[in-house]
Amino acid sequence: MLVVAVILALAAAYAARRALAREALVGWLEARGVPASVEFRDFELGAFAARLRLGPERDADVTAELAEVRYGFTGFWSGEPFGVRITSVVLHRPVIKASLKGGKLSLGSLDPVIEELTRRPPRPDVRQPEIRVREGVLRLATDYGPVQARLNAQLADGRLMALEGKVGATALRGRGLSLLTGPGDVKLVTTRDRLDLALNLPVRRVEAKGLSASDAELKASLRAPYPDLDRRRADGEVSARIDLAGRRIVSGGTALQTPRLEVVFGGRLSGALQTLVLRGDAETRLIAKAAEAPGAKARNLDLNLHAHEIKWTRSGGEAVSANLFAEARAAAIDSGETRLSRAVAKFQGPGRLAAGVVGMELEGGLTADGAWTGLGAPRADDPAQTAALKKAFRGFQLEAGQVSLRIKGQDVAVALGAPATMTTNTGGRAILAAHGGPLYAAGQGAFRLNVGGGGLPKAELLVPRYRLTPTGLVATTGLRASGDFGPVEAGTLDTAGELRVAGGATSFVASRCTAVTARRLELGENDIEAIDGKVCPTGAPLLTLAKSGWRLRGQAQGLSARAPFLEARISEAASDLDFRGVGEALTGRALITAARIDDTAVETRFQPVRATGEASTADGGWTGGFIVTDLARRRLGQAQLRHAADGHGGLDFDTGLLAFEEGGLQPVNLSPMATMVASPATGRARFQGQIAWTPETSSSHGTLSVERMDFVSPLGPLSGLTGQVAFNSLIPLTAAPGQSLKAESVATLVPLTDVEARFGLQGEALTVEGAKLAVGGGTLIFEPFTLPFKPGATWTGVVNFKGVQVSDLIEASPFGDRVDLDARLSGRVPFEVTPEGVRVSNGKLAAVQPGRVSIRREALIPVAQEGGAATVEAPGAPPGAAEGMADALNAATAPGQVNAFSEFAYQAMEHLAFDSLDAEVNSLPNGRLGVLLHVKGEHTPPKKQEIRLSIIDLITRRFLNKALPLPSGTKVDLTLDTSLNLDQLLKDFADYQSLRGSQAVQP
């Protein structure tokens, strides 16, 4: 239009001068508000040359150093009105100033003239002039900066026959655009009815609305029919090609390294311009050495799109349709700890774009090999379950063979014709399937996922419904999982609830309590076993995930677990949980409102207790404080937990000074080991202990301090027990030799005073280094012995008598009303305690000083009934008296009979002062204790006795049937072999002590 305006202006000037002189060119332009200047250089018939300026003198819109115009005249001879017709125009070095701002092109002051001429298009029956532009310059001002191009062009009969433009290096910036290009060029050539267009534009850098590229080059070519403007049609073959290559292109967060795009089209254009139809085929290929997206990287990316039977039409509005075949390949895709290799996706089906609405119905699938290394590299010390998981995820194959994709405008639907599977090299499978409908449609969907086999944990995830929201996603979920999960061995999880994703955060609101179990939680030397419990919602989301980290909130209920390294079991536990995590950092606390702790050691160390308190974590470690009570809620002490990030930690506990009182706390409430401390017990004691651990080992120790205790022991009431026991291990319970406990007294059959025992604990037994008991003015000393804790186990020992006066012992015995013994004994008695009773072997006792023995005749049961024998030596007695006395002790006298020798025997035993006494003690069958007693002394009745016999009595031996007194001073050398039922005696004593309040214990 600009060239036409110039031509008309020149023609008008010529006409004004040569013909009608109606109006000067300058006047015509100025009348339309266009300042102008024309300087004619040559003016001859049929041609002229001039210098031209249009627009303000100092800021012209168009200038031409030389405009060469050829023209001819019209008139009646040509059947036209008289006038001038321009036949050709050549503009040399024209400079055109224009602007393109806000999407509108402007040539400044020439805009009104161009608008006027546009309303009067040229007549179709009149040939248009040929116009050439040589070495022209276009200076275009835009919203982003100036653009300058050099142009050479040729128009003939209104058709652009040739165009060659060169654009200089350009820098544009503003409104979200930054563009830096190198020199580019565009060429257009029209041959007959076809045009060829080629474009080459280097792009050094571009950034615009999420797109950036660097060191790219755009090449485009087009061969197409030149539109027939007279007939308003376009018919002919069309071919086009676009090539784009660069060093790096980034779009929407996806970066392509060394990408290359190729688009090739071949087809045919036909029809009127208003109903134009384009048919053909197109091939598009995008390859890139690498691609990076948030959280993923791909290598050797190759995307192909084949569009066949393309049909584009303007009839009824622009629309395009085609049959599509898309294929995407990648040599490798890495996302975090997941790698896919040989990934291939193929889809095909019809596609359509009409009225701005895209529609597609594609069918296809995808395959890939993969590996996941989220559990770390294999290690020789991996548990079997972890090793199996690592092996399973080391290689797998993905396959989704029947995937359908439906797109209509903003509506997208994805469905599975058959389940998609992931199969590991070890035989494990993950199966994704539809659940009553498409995976996704109209902003919602459903699916189920099953996992199991080949070393994978078993899991069933059901999502019966999920829906997209303006800010994210909401899904109803149910999950059941079982198997090994990292340090969790044979774990199970059963939960259900609502999953919400919004604003970059994910939250899970449980609809019920989540059940959790595990056979083992592997923590090195500090494993936890038999975990069972549930975590219940509290109103807040159970789990929240966000960029700032994650948060777990809930209430643990009915939690139970076993801690073998503590030899303890926790049950009935309840706790309020609130934990947060950012990366590997964990913080939070567990407020423990209830927990029961039971001892699981072979020999129970403590009675069940309850604990409450709080445990918190920060900087990779744990701390906690707990209050411990018995089941009756009586406070027993407190415990402090510490566990550092390096795996070192410990549990310290202190009972404080516990007070035992009648009707209140008793030692048996603390430990079964205190069963020998019968209730009621009074006094005070304290226990302090520690359990420590490292990643490799654990240790423990503790101290029992008895300030004073009074209680009923198996031997009788015990007073003033004091001492301290240092345990060098609590798991198992051991104490080094040298521990000592002392008691002021034990009120047994005879009072025991200054009782002291030195001992140690080793494994399954109590090692007594020695024990001393002051009794009867002497001492009972136990040699070292080992007392096993196992009920019914056999053990042995030796008790030494050191000058023990046994008179009180005999007096307190069941036969104290029939026997008196004033004897101070020393000796050694080995014994063995078996399930059948106490057995004595080769015990020897002897009196250390003279004494007295008095056995009433009713106590002397005939030896024939009890088993045993007696011998008597009686110097000074009548002949045969000694033998008769022995016989009397070994046989019963018939009722109503009087035997002199029986009388002598009974009298001798009733009042016997001995000079020496010794005894051998051995166990006999059936639980009897055999005593072989040897006594030497004389008969010492309270009043002097003598025998007076006549000669007749001696001759006739009638005195043998008379009761005669045994003479005072009669020497007695007595060996008495007798026995007693020791088992029955000990049982009777135990029963007696039990009635007094002491617990029954092994004798």
Structure keywords:
rod-shaped, 62 strands, 1003 residues, mainly beta, disordered N terminus, 9% helix
Shape: rod-shaped
The total strand number stands at 62
> Helix share of residues?
under 10%
Contiguous uncertain segments of 5+ residues: 1-24, 862-877, 891-896, 997-1003
**Quaternary status:** single chain
Radius of gyration computed on alpha carbons: 59 Å
Compute the separation of the termini in Å: 129 Å
Query: Proportion of β residues?
Result: over 45%
What structural class do you assign from the helix and strand content? mainly beta
**What is the averaged pLDDT score?**
82
- Helix count equals 10
The biggest beta sheet, please? 62 strands, mixed
Q: Could you please describe the fold and organization of this structure?
A:
This protein has 1003 residues and is mainly β. Helices cover 9% and strands 61% of the residues. It is built from ten helices and 62 strands. The chain has a 62-stranded mixed sheet that branches. A hairpin with a 2-residue loop joins strand 29 (444-453) and strand 30 (456-469). The longest helix has 18 residues, at 2-19. It is rod-shaped. It starts with a helix and ends in a 7-residue tail after the last helix. The relative contact order is 0.03. The model is unreliable at 1-24, 862-877, 891-896 and 997-1003 (pLDDT under 50).
